[in-house]
Amino acid sequence: MKAQEGSVRRALKPTKWVLACVLMVVWAVPFVAAQVAFDADTNPELASQFIISPQVSAQHYMVSSANPLASQAGFDILRRGGGAIDAAIATQLVLNLVEPQSSGIGGGAFIVYYDRLNDKLVTYDGRETAPTGVSDAMFLNAEGQLEGYHQAVNSGLSVGVPGLLRVLELAHQKHGLLPWEQLFEPAIQLAEKGFPVSGRLHYMLEHSRGLREQAATRAYFFAPDGQPWPVGHILKNPEFAHVLKRVAAEGPDAFYTGDVAAAIVDAVQNHERPGTLSLDDLANYQALERSPLCGQYRVYTVCGVGPPSSGTL
After folding, report:
1. Which residues pair with 63 in a beta bridge?
2. Which of 6, 103, 163, 191 is the most exposed place for a label (fewest CB within 10 A)?
3. What is the spatial distance between Cα 203 and Cα 190, in angstroms, rounded to a whole number?
4. Residue 117 DSSP label
5. What is the largest CA-CA distance in the chain?
6. Model pLDDT, residue 79
7. Tens digits of per-residue pLDDT, 115-140?
8. Who contacts 40 (Cβ-Cβ below 8 Å, separation ≥6)?
9. 258 dihedral zone (left: phi>0; alpha: psi -120 to 50; beta)
């Protein structure tokens, strides 16, 4: 997820000093970027509305994300006595709602966590994994040639086993301070009451062909005339709120097993171009704790997530 529409919240209330970074959720500022033109069907993660952020600082804690509603959710969790992992979870869940094109419970994440009190750095791997039924010929057409990006992505074949909820669960078990269910409250409230469509979300919808081709996404993201909901339109997602309530009360098993898992598998296997995702794939997914990958840059030791992530060093 690229940084844009960033929002930072600061406070002076003393708290335990820990730092967590969920890749695609929390990052440092400032940043400088330039406008880039792109085809959203071939480069769906490039940010569409860049801004230049001023340098900011905080004495005790800070949350920065790609949407102010998500930043506010994380900030409120810190203010209630939560730790960095708690804030990162609340931030991520709201990001899922307000910019689902970039992150969410249908995908994966990496977490870099530093506990200053114990001077310990640890990383967690919640990357999506390939279903057990994949093959080396799955993206070849009848002539044995590679399919185009659009044809491959907009199909059940490109659906991996999502890892986000499992890695959030693992990190929370290790480092969480507030109860798991409390971290879902901001996203549930926004999903039920509605949130304003951001400029970035509108831009992504305007330039995406794939979402118009699927009935469920067409009904949610687009007006009856086929146009994407305008910036500021209040969009509600009660179905997402229902799933979050289940996961908040029952844990990630409510997502990886049972009727929710069955609905996911059914959507993938009954797609016009079906994939191989199975109930066993979902039930057997496991997030992993890994040793960080570190290297020297001048006087600094720079650390991040090792394989299977990309771009750490």
Report:
1. 9
2. 6
3. 21
4. T
5. 64
6. 96
7. 888 999 999 999 999 999 999 999 99
8. 48, 203, 204, 207, 208
9. left
Bridge pairing between strands 195-196 and 61-65: unpaired
- Residue identified by tokens 């419970």 is 105
Question: Rounded mean pLDDT of 72-85?
Answer: 97
- Between CA 107 and CA 159 the distance in angstroms is 9
- Per-residue pLDDT for 295 more than 60? yes
Check residue 16 and give its pLDDT. Answer: 31
DSSP symbols for 9-62: EEE------EEEEETTT---S----------TTT-TTS-SS--PPPP---SSEE
What pTM was estimated for this model as a whole?
Answer: 0.84
Tell me the percentage of the chain whose pLDDT exceeds 70.
82
In the block, which residue shows the tokens 């060093």?
Answer: 313
Q: Are β-strands 120-126 and 7-11 bridged in parallel, bridged antiparallel, or unpaired?
A: unpaired
The pLDDT score that the predictor gives to residue 52 is: 63
Q: What percent of the chain clears pLDDT 90, i.e. is strictly above it?
A: 66
The confidence score (pLDDT) of residue 213 equals 85
Average pLDDT, rounded, for the chain: 85
Of 310, 19, 24, which Cα lies nearest the Cα of 164?
24
Q: How far apart are CA 235 and CA 195, in angstroms?
A: 5
Q: Which residues on neighbouring strands pair with residue 289, listed in sequence order?
A: 124
Cα–Cα–Cα angle for 8, 14, 19, rounded to 5 degrees: 55
**Could you count the other beta carbons within 10 Å of the beta carbon of residue 215?**
8
Tokens for 10, please give them.
């600061």
What is the DSSP annotation of 166-189?
A: HHHHHHHHHH--S-GGGGGHHHHH
Encoding tokens for residue 158? 């490109």
pLDDT at 274: 95
- Tokens 């500021």, residue? 232
